[in-house]
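Side project, low priority. Logging it here so it doesn't get lost.
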Amino acid sequence: MKKGQFFVIGALVLILFMFYATYNSRFEVAKPVDYTKDLFSNVKSEVLRSASLAYYQGPYSSSVESNVTYFLDFVRNATQSQRSEVLAIIFLPVFSDYNVSVVNFLTSPIDINVTVGGVERNTTSLTDKSSVRFVFNTVSHNSTVNVTYVRNGVKTSNVFNLTARKLNTYVDIKLFSSKVTWTDKVVG
C-alpha cells in the first residue's frame, strides 16, 4: 500500500462522516415562542391575589383599589407586545354589608351598573385606570349579582352568585397578543 492511498481513504471516510453528521443532526433553529397563554393564566390568578391581599388590610381601606390598580398598571406596562384590558369588581364583606370596588382598566370610559340582591348602584363615565366604591347594605348570605357595563355603545352583562360572607372577586379580562386574543371571566 502506498503512502497516498492511506490519505485518500482517510479523506473519504472523513467526508462520509461529515455528510452523515450533517443529514442526521438533531439540531434545529429555535422558533419564536408566544408566552401569552402562560402570561394570561398568571394574570388571572394574580388579579385575584392582589384583591385578597388588600382584603386582609381591611375592607374600609383604599388599598383594595390601589393594590389592584398597581398590579394592573404593572401588567399593562410589562406587556409591551401585548395589550391588556381588565374590569375588576371586588366584593368586600363588612358585617352584613358589602363594599363593592370597581376598577376600570378597559382603556376607555364605561357606564357600569351593579345590582346585588335587587339593590342597584351605578356610575357613568368611569375612566380608564379609575375606580369607584359602592356600599350595599344588609346583603343576604347568598345573593345574585348582575354586572352590566356599557363601553363604546356595546353593552356587556354577567350574572353570578355571592357566597356567604367572604371576599368575592369578578374579573373580565382580555389579553391581546400579536397572534391571538385570550379572554375570560373569572369569579373567585
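Brief comment: The mean pLDDT is 81.
Revisit when time allows.
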